[in-house]
Amino acid sequence: MAIHRARFHSLSLSTSSGSGVERTLDGEDQRTTSRRPKIEDLPLSARQIEVGRLVATGLTNAAIAERLGISHRTVTSHLDHIYARLGIGSRAALARWIAERGLLGDSDDQG
Questions:
Q1: Which of 14, 20, 48 is nearest to 35 (CA)?
Q2: Where in the sequence of the chain do the CATH 1.10.10.10 domains occur?
Q3: Closest CA to 85 of 39, 34, 33, 49
Q4: What are phi and psi of 24, to 5 degrees?
Q5: Tens digits of per-residue pLDDT, 47-97?
Q6: Measured distance CA(29)–CA(45) in Å, rounded
Q7: CA atoms within 13 A on the CB side of 84
Q8: Rounded CA gap, 97 and 99, in Å?
Q9: How far is Cα 105 from Cα 45, in angstroms, rounded to an integer?
Q10: What is the pTM of this model?
Q11: pLDDT tens sequence across 9-24
Q12: How far is CA 106 from the centre of its chain?
């Protein structure tokens, strides 16, 4: 059994759910190392990422506007551009996109 398991494990395929854990065909979980992409490698500007991160934390457009010192309409405009650039259509999809790329941490260590 151990020989078969070792062979099977070495040939196993894996699937990832974006959670930092891969599940191999033999049912074992393996941790993956997920690195944050550099801001310049993302399809969004630094400001759009900042707005997206605040959306992902659950803030409303009004709260984002207040936090960033911009108008509510500017937040809406940023979101319209983000949605178009990423090909998504909701705050939930944006939050998922931000989370999948590990962008929910401190903005000070980005780039």
A1: 20
A2: 39-106
A3: 49
A4: -85, 170
A5: 999 999 999 999 999 999 999 999 999 999 999 999 999 999 999 999 999
A6: 35
A7: 6
A8: 6
A9: 17
A10: 0.62
A11: 333 333 444 445 445 4
A12: 13
